[in-house]
């Protein structure tokens, strides 16, 4: 399937339209592709595009539902620094449109750049929550994720 066909399938599944369904779905898919910056890849086979495009394709497929909350699990996994910066820019734009982002991620630079608020858990327990600067300097977070003695 092409990149565009993947988003069309998501649009058909996630959205209900009245008359003119096909035109509406095509417009929604095109808008999601443009929002994520992958419109130029619409005719490409999804299996053949770079990893960053695949990541954005998953986001575009979710965007056709018009979400208020977008949940992402390790969206920066496998991306190099340039692609991570590209992803950060996209997530920032989505956040600025009012979409709430719930991100599970180990790439702290992405979280620092995108999240105005963080919640860190370990073993099902909340360790810290608040602005990234205070959460990431919290001793319980440092001990749980970086080990004792880090930074000393």
Description:
With 152 residues, the chain is α+β, with helices and mostly antiparallel strands. It has a domain at 1-66. It is built from 7 helices and 4 strands; from the N terminus they run H-H-H-E-H-E-H-E-E-H-H. The strands form 2 sheets. A two-stranded parallel sheet has the order 1-2. Strands 3-4 form a two-stranded antiparallel sheet. Helix 4 (81-96) links the parallel strand 1 (69-73) and strand 2. Helix 1 (3-14) runs parallel beside helix 3 and helix 2 (21-35) packs across helix 3. The protein starts with a helix and ends in a 6-residue tail after the last helix.
Give average pLDDT, whole number.
90
Poorly predicted segments: none
Classify the secondary structure makeup into a structural class: alpha+beta
**End-to-end span in angstroms?**
52 Å
Entry keywords:
single chain; 152 residues; alpha+beta; two-stranded parallel sheet; two-stranded antiparallel sheet
Write the layout of secondary structure elements.
Elements: H1 3-14, H2 21-35, H3 51-63, E1 69-73, H4 81-96, E2 100-104, H5 108-114, E3 118-122, E4 125-130, H6 132-135, H7 139-146
Parallel strand pairs: 1-2
Antiparallel strand pairs: 3-4
């Amino acid at each position: 399937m092409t990149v565009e066909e993947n988003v069309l399938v998501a649009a058909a599944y996630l959205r209900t339209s009245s008359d003119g369904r096909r035109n509406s779905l095509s417009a929604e898919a095109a808008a999601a592709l443009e929002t994520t910056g992958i419109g130029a890849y619409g005719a490409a086979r999804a299996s053949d595009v770079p990893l960053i495009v695949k990541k954005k394709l998953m986001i575009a497929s979710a965007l056709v539902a018009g979400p208020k909350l977008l949940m992402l699990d390790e969206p920066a996994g496998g991306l190099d620094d340039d692609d991570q910066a590209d992803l950060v820019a996209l997530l920032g734009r989505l956040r600025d449109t009012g979409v709430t982002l719930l991100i599970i991620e180990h790439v702290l630079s992405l979280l620092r750049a995108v999240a105005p608020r963080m919640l860190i858990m370990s073993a099902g327990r909340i360790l810290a929550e608040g602005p990234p600067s205070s959460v990431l300097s919290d001793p319980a977070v440092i001990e749980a994720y970086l080990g004792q003695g880090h930074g000393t």
